[in-house]
Amino acid sequence: MGRYYIETYGCALAEFDSSIAESRLEEEGFARVNSIDNAEYVVINTCAVRLDTEQRIAERLQWITRQYPDKKLIITGCLVKARPGLVARLAPRASLLSPQNIDKITEAIRALDHGSKIVLLEGSRDTSTLPVPKPIDATATIMIQEGCLGDCSFCITKIARRQVKSYPPRLIVETISKLLNAGVVEIRLTGLDTAVYGVDIPGKPTLADLLNIILDKVKGEYMIRVGMMTPDQALEIIDDLLEVYRDKRVYKYFHIPVQSGDNRVLKLMNRKYTVEEFKQLHSKIKSKYPEALIATDIIVGHPGEDEEAFNNTIKLVEELKFEKIHLAQYSIRPHTKSAAMPQIPDNIKKERSTKLAKIIEEIGYNIMSEYRGRIVEAVVTERGYRDGSLVARLENYIPVIIQGNGILGARIKVKIVNNTFFDLRGELLESRIIRKDPN
């Protein structure tokens, strides 16, 4: 049918949408290529969460339309839904698909083949079917829900993915089973807020209910990683969730963004919890699973963050010693309440970000150093960035970089010999293949 090239910007939700696009195209006989030069169709899956990402995408779209005026261009993702006018100006001949319309990518291509374009921005996600996402190495990402119940002042993603829509447990179980049969050993369950999973489904099954169903219905050796949860929604289900996490097939990994260590700033952000409530949540997790990896997000320089508020964030980081922190300087996004607030100068945001990054690196290095000399079990899930390297995951999802041929998808024993502030380096001692041979 033709050759396509795809680029993806953003989070795990974008990766899932791209995998849907790839599945749809390959079902229709299209072949993926790794270079725009060799493609007839170019798919750009965009992100809207930060200004610098938007600028990078804008420059990329301008370059593609200038360098490849004859390529048939399909643009999708959050930026299309949140800022359709901008995208249309950047690429006036492209077909535009909101994230909720990604499954209509072949319709977009047919329109372009006939000399026209389509713009599909409305509608909600169809959760009556769940396409099998394309695996990456021995991993696969499944979107279990889209949308959130919050209204954060700084967030533009809520414009792109507002409505809460959850996939039924039956479809998720079926999809996981197919992925395991294809050789996948790590399933990543993702959503805009996984803690609100099921609120829109009859019977209102919770995230804990979903995990119980998966673990009961899907037999075999595999690992599940649960994606991001907002603190206020996580507090509602944490007790049940901690019980489900007792299963060895669930990584002891929790991604719960705190965003700020100051209650006044949290109120300006319209976050629905306090620092004290977040500490309570953190304590519950650590009391049950002391070596759990708690990842969080922090925004530096949000409007209203004075020196006292910033220092409160530092105190929280030093007190809780997060295993992983996604640190970002506040970025103005259109159509958000925070954009209309008095802004903090860029030089101050940069100074605070640099100061906090050093603290984060020191804490991370100390945490990782505690693993040196230990012999641990891990599952090999991905190819590394360097030739011949592989990434294995501990029970708490900390990455271990190793060398080894033919062990992708294996459960291994490894001795930790070195570390950085964000990963471990190990020597392979023994391995046992657990992924099924799809042939």
Highlighted features:
Rossmann fold; 18 strands; six-stranded parallel sheet; 13 helices; pyruvate-formate lyase- activating enzyme; OB fold (Dihydrolipoamide Acetyltransferase, E2P); globular; 439 residues; 3 domains; five-stranded mixed β-barrel; 23% strand; alpha/beta
Shape: globular
Beta-strand percent range: 15-25%
- The number of helical runs is 13
CATH class type of the largest domain:
Alpha Beta
Architecture (CATH level 2) name of the largest domain: Alpha-Beta Horseshoe
Q: Into which percent range does the helicity of residues fall? A: 25-40%
Domain count: 3
For the sheet with most strands, the description reads:
6 strands, parallel
Oligomer: single chain
Mean pLDDT: 95
Strand order in the sheet with the most strands? 2-1-3-4-5-6
Radius of gyration: 22 Å
Number of strands: 18
Termini separation (Å)? 26 Å
Under CATH, the topology of the largest domain can be stated as pyruvate-formate lyase- activating enzyme
SS-derived structural category: alpha/beta
Contiguous runs where pLDDT drops below 50 for at least 5 residues: none
CATH superfamily placement of the largest domain = tm_1862 like domain
